[in-house]
Specification:
AhpD-like; 102 residues
């Protein structure tokens, strides 16, 4: 499991019951379907990019890399988003996938 962001770590430390419940829900969602791990991680990245969440994108990148998703595959996800979320939003997301981990 990748190291949580600084903010996630603060939530985990100060609110362990919320952290535990959140992780249980996340695991249940991942286990609910037939997609393999790599595909799930690409989908999660696409959702974070589409939602425009920087922290969510950083988290999705960490998890995707752990699942074996390459930087080129992550870039392809962002390129696919251009016609849906627009060039500026995709450019922003592209910068997020190349940010250094916290």
């Amino acid at each position: 499991m990748p190291k949580p962001s600084i903010v996630a770590e603060q939530i985990r430390t100060k609110n362990p019951e919320i952290w535990k419940a959140f992780n249980s829900l996340a695991q249940a969602c991942h286990d609910a379907g037939s997609l393999d791990e790599k595909t799930r991680r690409l989908v999660k990245l696409a959702i974070a990019v589409g939602a425009g969440t920087e922290g969510g994108t950083h988290s999705a990148v960490r998890h995707a890399a752990e699942a074996g998703v390459t930087p080129e595959e992550m870039e392809h996800v962002v390129l696919l988003s251009i016609t849906t979320i627009g060039f500026p939003a995709a450019g922003r997301a592209l910068s997020w996938i190349h940010d250094k981990p916290e």
